[in-house]
Amino acid sequence: MSTESNDSAPAKRSQIQQFWHQFKHNHLSMAGGVIIAVVILLAVFAPVIAPYSPTTQFDTPEGKYHPVEPGTEIVLTNDGEVVERGTAYLGTDHLGRDLLSRIVFGLRTTLTIALSVVVMALVIGTVLGGLAGYFRDSWLDELIMRVMDVIFPFPSLILAIALLGAVGIGKTEYTTALFGTVTVPGLAKIVLVVTIVYIPRFARVMRGATVREVEEDYVDALRSIGISDINILMRDVMVNSIQPVVIQGTLYMGTAVLISAGLSFLGLGVQPPKPGLGVMLSNARGYIYSGEWWFATFPGLMIVFIILGFNLLGDGLRDALDPKYDSRGE
Amino acid sequence: MTDTILHVDDLTTHFETEQGTVKAVDGVSFELNAGETLGVVGESGSGKSVTAMTMMGLIGSAGNVKRGSVRFGGEDLLEKPESELQKIRGTRIAMVFQDPMTSLNPTQTIGKQITRVIRTHQDHSKAEAKAKTVDLMEQVGIPEAESRVDNYPHQFSGGMRQRALIAMAISCEPDVLIADEPTTALDVTIESQIFDLLDDLQEEYDMSILLITHDLGVVAGTCDRVNVMYAGRIVEKGSREEIFTDPRHPYTRGLLRSIPQLRSAATRLMPIEGDVPNPASLPSGCSFNPRCPHAEAECSQYDPELRSVTQSQEAACLLAEGYGGTPATEEPEAAARTGGGDR
Fold this sequence. Notes:
The complex is a heterodimer.
Chain A: H1 15-24, H2 27-44, H3 46-49, E1 72-78, E2 81-88, H4 99-134, H5 139-151, H6 156-167, E3 172-176, E4 180-184, H7 186-214, H8 217-224, H9 229-241, H10 243-265, H11 277-284, H12 293-321
Chain B: E1 4-17, E2 20-33, E3 37-41, H1 48-56, E4 63-72, E5 75-76, H2 82-88, E6 93-96, H3 110-121, H4 126-139, H5 145-148, H6 158-170, E7 176-180, H7 188-205, E8 208-213, H8 216-222, E9 225-230, E10 233-239, H9 240-245, H10 250-257, E11 307-308, E12 314-315, H11 320-325, H12 330-341
Parallel strand pairs in B: 3-8, 3-9, 6-7, 7-8
Antiparallel strand pairs in B: 1-2, 1-4, 4-5, 9-10, 10-12, 11-12
Helix pairs in contact in B: 3-4, 3-6, 4-6, 6-7
């Protein structure tokens, strides 16, 4: 008796190779990837790259408390003795601090917030959306999605401001019955608040993807062979439907940077003297019309670059991972 | 020999739809004996698959199991909680589905998927389970199993995938295997190989097979007994010989007449007139009466129950007894005559 021939030889390319092949031919998304790589390197190696401490106030030719233009000599004196001497390549801010050092360290803060927000919101949103989608139309689905519906329609910045208003700005100590005194740092509060704002976005995308995936025959096949629903959800359905959520994640990295900068700009986010891109813009506001153009321009450009980078990268990922989606509408 | 291991009684599953209540399965009763192959035949939408899914407790929230019991191993499966059903599925009752192309998770290797089933139900180490996986794959006739365990489903042909799914289904040596149109999506040449395989496995593991199909040819080749379903009900039950040589229900006769016969004098096939009725609004009386060539006035008034016509054969037709009097060969000949007249 002959059996079917050993057809369909192993695929020549693995999925990752296929993805890379798609991705590298998209020059814009490669550019986005390069921008993000550079920005992340800058943030990681901030202490090496930054010429000075981000909080040192230098003496400038115009005094200690005045922004000076890029390329000016700056000196740090202590009791008339020169401790440090150098050049402010991007100028200084209104307190004589080196702008380049502050931007590089500010990147750290801003990226940390954005990354924590997106990772946390993605994980929580994926689990909630996955549960809702798998147990579609059950009480669990209703419960999860109605809560999401309450959060979703608010403009993200407005909701973040409102939530921050409720928990307050800066470090707070809470006395709890279970854990004693818990100190919540200001940064953690920002992350928490923006995460809450973002969870519904991920949950909705994940629910949609899960609902589609659960219709697949293999889900019934797995159930018929005694695999539990939770096991199918975690090991099969979620793994197979997480792609659009990850793509959303890269796109939301950009907007998360914008929100965290926006909160800081309004004085609700990162608190001085900690460097942050939003705080720097906020400080620079008063100097825009008085000729100190560098003060607002460089932090602003940095924000633009980060968001541009993440958007290009996200678009490229979507094109490479999801062949059905055509961004050019062809 | 005739130990009944699965006893389905008055199984009734309804679906609530916008057009009304669909009685997908309506009072279905049958027994599955140890070691036999029982065929369930019917057109699409006759309730064959829903019967199987209800038995497995997989009907989901859309379906509403109204009545009935599925007695298996002294217990009613319909009353068991989901957690206990999960232990029964795969170990004591397993299922093979229609479309092997979509019944495997495309992102996991074949080997991992089989190993997972083994490790879910049996206490094996990873290495033991993997060795067992290779054994199973060899047993179901997958060549070079050792290297193909690491292949993904898209690297397997349809027939090979169905073999992999069968390997998964038999991995924990179930007592009952439900095969829901296992070869409908496959080539005819592969079809016979799959049935040969099921035959061998049935003998080796002493399984009972519930074979759901719309193909009477498949039934003729594999089944010991046959249930014919129409519009959610079993309209005729009997041994394979009885169904093929002496069908008592006009629907069964219609089905048989619509199979091409190599040696038959008829040159035209005789399809059953009309369409399957809308399940949300079945005709009154016997559901088959609008399509039945023998329908009489009372057929649209009385809804016939299954009645014994011989010792082992039952039919749900008011006129079934009458058929018993006429020789079984007369009908096909009459069909041949009218077929010839059309020429």
